[in-house]
Amino acid sequence: MINVMIVSRQEAAIRALRHFISEDPELEVSADSRGGESALEKVETVAPDVLIIWADENDPDAINLAERIILRKPRTFVILLVPELSIDIYTAAANAGCHNVFPYPDEGKELTDLIHRVYNAESGRLSALTTNQRVTWTSRVLTVFGAKGGLGKTTMSVNLAMKLASMKKKVAIVDLDLQFGDVHIFMDMDPKDTISDLMQDMANPTIDTIRSYMTVHPSGVHVLCAPKSPEYADLVSAEKLQTVLGLLRSYYDFVIIDTAANFTDPIITALEASTTILFLTGLDVSILKNSKVAMSILESLGQKKKVRAVINRAVEINSITIADVQRIVDAPILSRIPSDYMMAVAALNRGQPFVQSAPRSKLSLAVSDMAEKLAEGKDNFDMQQLSARERKAMMRKYRTRDASEKKGLFGRR
């Protein structure tokens, strides 16, 4: 629960902010104040996680209050809401040490998303100051690809992004399934703008331009959503996409690209821009046949060395083994994700990724393990290089068996 305190001279503004915040079950208003010394006393008593200051026009008291709290209470994160952004306001706020300055919100979700985003970012900054964590500065582009629809690419992209964000990484998702992308559905978001809208505003692109077209999830993950209708897919050119990915790398720790199961020019551009290609495959003949063909194409494109295989829905059926997959796909096996169809579908229907809604499930543990390897730069990990004992321990940790499997595929017990 994030505790929020509101400061405003206007009673109507306090009521409006309270109403907006009440719509989010993870937020709670612990106090409010009209400002001045009473606000400082309440901050001292309540110790809120986030302080929202609703500033009137030409209100020096608001910036003075923000400065005093930022200096004296570093664990209270200050958000300054102003009628209109301007150079003068930015300069005054920056001189006071307040960099979270935003215009008045138009709706509740805009405000609650803002609170989550600031809380996550500032908590990460504070953690970095108080711990001796090793920092990795190099940005990574992870393209989640597979040779067939329905392999779980979007599920993997979303849950991997959420887990990396929880590890205080700056994460972006680019939904490159340009005709039927649905990352926003998996994350329960209603995007205002999409990648096709961005492509029409690429005269002098900057990272700020791109971010203005992204939708922000409460976890802190930024999403560049797929077009709202298939006919807009043609607006996304490979050349412009290359520019976008380059700019995203300058800002985010991880850029995760969700793809369709084809080799269009934009997807080839994404594959070429990748530092690692997470190649989803499975333990059935049809998937492996397509995977072998796709790997041949990746080899012809000069991208095979980047490939790390991820075996999804890995229910053992004896006829096809992990060793068979490695032989057919001919790539290191980074991870094996257990099969839990009910968990995955329930998470999708709720719009809440399972690493968030069920963090101790075996699905979440497997994705978390992969996220930790990627965060630590262990992209070259290969399950098949483990000893037999280590491999068995890992498989036992994430193994789930469907009821049908317990009985045997053909009804045997």
Describe what this molecule looks like in 3D.
By secondary structure, this protein is α/β, with parallel strands linked by helices. The protein folds into 2 domains: 2-130, Rossmann fold, CATH 3.40.50.2300; 140-407, P-loop containing nucleotide triphosphate hydrolases (Rossmann fold, 3-Layer(aba) Sandwich), CATH 3.40.50. It is built from 18 helices and 13 strands. It has helices at residues 11-22, 36-46, 60-72, 87-95, 108-130, 153-166, 183-186, 195-199, 207-212, 238-249, 265-273, 285-300, 322-329, 341-350, 354-357, 362-375, 388-398, 403-407, and strands at 2-8, 27-33, 50-54, 77-82, 101-103, 140-146, 171-176, 215-216, 222-224, 254-259, 276-281, 307-311, 333-336. The strands form 2 sheets. An 8-stranded mixed β-sheet has the order 8-9-7-10-6-11-12-13, sandwiched between helices. The protein has a 5-stranded parallel β-sheet with strand order 2-1-3-4-5, with helices on both faces. Helix 1 (11-22) links the parallel strand 1 and strand 2 (27-33). Helix 1 (11-22) crosses helix 5, helix 6 crosses helix 16 and helix 10 runs parallel beside helix 11 (265-273). It is elongated.
